[in-house]
Amino acid sequence: xxLPIALRLLTPLPLLLMSGLANANPRPLPFTYPNETLxxxxxELELYTDVNPLRVYRDPADPTAGKLWEPxxxxxxxxxxxxxxxxxxxxxxxxxxxxxxGGQNGMSFDGLKWRVRTRLAEPGExxxxxGLYFELETMHDELSFEExxxxxxxFGRAAWMANLWVEEEIERxxxxxxxxxxLEFVINPTTGFTYELTPAFHPGxxxxxxxxxxxxxxxxxxxxxxxxxxxxxAIHFELGRLWWSGGLYVNLNSTKIPQPGDAYGPVxxxxxxxxxx
Length: 277
Hints:
Helices cover 7% and strands 57% of the residues. It has helices at residues 5-10, 12-18, 219-225; strands at residues 43-59, 62-82, 87-100, 104-119, 129-139, 142-155, 158-171, 184-187, 190-195, 201-210, 228-239, 242-251, 267-276.
């Protein structure tokens, strides 16, 4: 009996996905990089979606008319390439959709990121697996340098991962009025645990934080810039050449309804979809 055309077209799909199982480099935790890197010559595409629920004024001309929920979005696409079995290159394009009064948002191109990631040994050779990560961010209004020390330890099917992450930022580096401005230091540590319940499904839990230790400006500007802490469950699915990780994180600083102008809402959601090319 001949299969319908649609079924005949879909039949090879699972085999196609599984054929790249050994070459993909999935991230079981959405914010935390693992120690493993792409094999030499392999190319992978990763699509990031961050959702941050915020508040805006219903009427831009009348703050007394009430407020609306309007999420902020950060969209990134990243190409990763295995230069060697221990060195991985990455290139990002970053887009943002910032909420605006009236319940609108404006999507804009925010800039480019360039990074290199390496690991110092094969998994399990050291008491704790160690990797290094360096990134240059060339954004529309900011130049940033980023460094990470990536740590990992496996316990059978369970794994602990941590990224000790710092950034040095210069705002408006090409603006002559800011020449000589000091770097702003931002910390962004992450850590979490993941468990291989099945080869295709890995639940986990992850913590991450972001902000400055010293802040300036108005009370709201200082509140936005200070270190914010997030914690929540994460899930990861592996489908051979295709994988997906997602996490929903509670804002440990405050779960109250934000005010217009606040940089963080009560929760943060991140999705990362990866495809081995």
